[in-house]
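ligand=MU-OXO-diiron
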Amino acid sequence: MIKKELTNDIYMFSMNLEDLLFESMWELPHGVTMNSYIVKGEKTAIIDGVIGWNGVPETLYEILGEIDISPDDIDYVVINHMEPDHSGWIEDFKQIKDDFTIITTEKGKPLVEAFYGDDLTIKVVQEGDSLALGNGKELTFHPIPNVHWPETMVTYETTSKILFTCDMYGAFGTIDQHIFDDEMTPEETQLYEAESVRYFSNVLTTFSPMVKRAITKTKELDIKMIAPGHGPLYRDNPNKIIEDYTTYTKYASGFGKKEVTILWGSMYGSTKRAVEYAEKILKDAGVKVNLLRLPYATESDIVTNVFRSAGVIIAASTYEYRMFPPVAHAIDELGRKKITNKQALYFGSYGWNPGAERDLNNILDNYRMKWQFVEPVNFAGEATPDKLKEIKQQINLLLENMQEKLL
Ligand code: FEO
């Protein structure tokens, strides 16, 4: 666990977690951090907890000792967000201390009781409420509903102007020693930028309209440092992550980088050969291509790449009169994530009947995805030279349509 004093009597503890599926489903090639904060005045508050996935916080207690705080000194537990990656340690904490006050929003109170029992002291806070801790430390509370659950809020320390944002402005990626934006090497900056896209797309995309509102609210505060619950801290240029998050909300509604993600699945190679042809056309046009073969690509990579790309190609054969199931599953997941208005092309091989396209349209309609497709190209068996020519023409149209969506 990393321990760092952010400023006088405000500390961060961060634990790296690797080899896990985040939310039990998202593969994390670079892991994730769990960040927790202590604000020490005459009274002491802990903002979000740090636990391992098994909920054992002994390491937190040990490291508190290094700054002369015992768990018994904690007066307030600020719950910015009730999801158990941040709150799960309370179950253990209440076994060793029974006189602390939980600070949460109105919507957080019933959740605290549902998860951790109705025998806890809870103080409900509204927008702008404040809590003086003494010695010049004061916290104010600002609900940002649905980033990521309905009860979420951010907490602001008025003297240091540090904003504790929990899931908001978070990123995946473990941290070694460089926790601040100004300490990063160029490679680390690049990694955390990519991992913040992965984090946003995997965890927050569904709530992009609420993230937009939260961005507006946080911009009203005079922020010197952004201290999220996952990933690095931003003190040199807090505005950078705010701007990045603004961009990500646009990725969720059809904008993207000059990249085409090809989600493809092929049973016996006919669709695969058409994919290879499409890849060459795109590369010759100077477009970055993300090839994701299903069912081998991870759910996390599928969502991240499609989210970031201005263009998408769905290439899937027909299977039992419907779309090759792993590709259908991927589109279904993108629908659940509310990734809308992408520019797209479908092509694929069929034997008896081109049912994949019909299946695709059903999924798109079901989730009201509003993707804008150029003409699909279905081909029986192997794609003929004429069919490949059609694919080329439709790719060129796709690239034209992407022009207005590039960020
Ligand atoms: Fe990091 Fe929504 O929990």
